[in-house]
Amino acid sequence: MRIALLTERADFRTWSAEGSWCARLAEGLPEHEFELCPLEALPGTGTDVPSERVRLRAAERMRRGPVLGLRRRRALAAYGELVSALADQRRVESFPDALYALADAARGGGITALLRSGAAVDTLHRAWQAPGASLAAEAGAPVLQDALVAADLLERALRPLSLAWQEGGPERVDLCHVLGGGPALLPALLAKRFHGVPLVLTEHGLHLRERLRGYRDAPYGLPVRALLHAFHLQLAKEGYRQAGLITPGSAFDQRWQEYCGADPGRIRVVYEGTMAADRPEAGPEPERPTLAWVGPIAPHGGLLEALRAFGELRERYQGLRLRVFGEIPPGAEEYARACRAAAEEFGEDARFGGWSGPAAAGAGWVVLLSGSEGPRPRLLAELMLTGRPVVGTDVGVMRELLGPTGLLVPPGEHGPLVETCSALLGDAERRARLGRAGRQRAQELYAVAPAVEAFREVYLELAGQVAPVPEAAAAAPTRRPQPFARPAEYWLGVRTG
């Protein structure tokens, strides 16, 4: 099969470079032809991609030309209906139809310029302020400035509607595999809607949740954030409805997807394979007892709680040190200064080392994660692969991935954190036992081969399903697809005989 890997990422080289997730998938499934389709290709990169199994399609190629006459009126009407579906909870079910109507109007080109026009801003503002709009009642009535900002952000999110790659002809693909969700879903949704191309959605961390976290500190008014939240929520729900199979990176994300309306029968948890599973574990423990704290230096990272616990542990263990490994997210500078001020009383015993990868966990006897939101699953797996025992807060994927190989404490409470770390610092045999068990568990869950084999089965399952009749062919019965007209070996590129 020809499989399009659709991603929102602009730094596509990190996806296609040797050892990356996309490259491992392509190399592990040589019976398929993969084409990487980043929505925001870096300028000047052409098709020079390191992996010869993954090549870049011209995703930056947009349809050009103005939107005029009847098509312009149709596009503005569809855009108004889409915004109305976001602003009024009573009309939310019309979101998919409005989205596809806007996409149909975008086929002739020029939709990007239209959505930035004054007419589009007026259409958005009127729909947003319509009587009974629940969003305005909850988040506040939008002013003209809100409409200008929201129009710009919505145009960026809807820009993939102008991509030309999903049109018919020799460049057709047999399957769309969306990585991460969000706007990358749009071309795949259109390919399914207009051409019957099946869709697989993989989320290594819920895209919608990350969007919501990003909007917390975004420099937009509350009405704008509420409107963009509603858009990404409805886009995620439509993606879950249309995907033939959904492959979250953890059971924790699966529960979020089901909460957003995903069908449990179409979900397959596939842990993200990592090359770190084959790396050797960290070396011997440091001579002095040391805690290695890992996480974002932000309020949800829990560093202040860890520093408070460290202060009490120093009274029990002479010479105890704390090494902090993390980055400061935008907007958390004040919190980072408070953490450094709190650490000053410990002198050289508490050092900030910056983030240098999961191998930094080897600098401690125990790896400490005290955040209130939990780490990314792959990061936690790579920390476990160092062979150091992990103490973490019972949030997110921590319980699922650690299982019986780590120790969990309630978030935001330094007392249990003190007692748990103390128990491990005083028991070398237990540290070694938990570290080995954690490494073995991470190797089982995050090895590359099981992940690749899981997607081989996913693709086979979708290839065996009868595709729905595309809308474009519905009026031409003679062009209806014929199930089983070709043997399965044809689609897999297998030569028999």
UniProtKB/TrEMBL annotation:
Residues 20-264 form the DUF3492 domain. SUPFAM superfamilies: UDP-Glycosyltransferase/glycogen phosphorylase. Pfam families: DUF3492, Glyco_trans_1_4. It comes from the Bacteria. InterPro entries: DUF3492. PANTHER family: BLL3647 PROTEIN, GLYCOSYLTRANSFERASE. This is D-inositol 3-phosphate glycosyltransferase. It comes from Streptacidiphilus monticola. The lineage of its organism: Bacteria, Bacillati, Actinomycetota, Actinomycetes, Kitasatosporales.
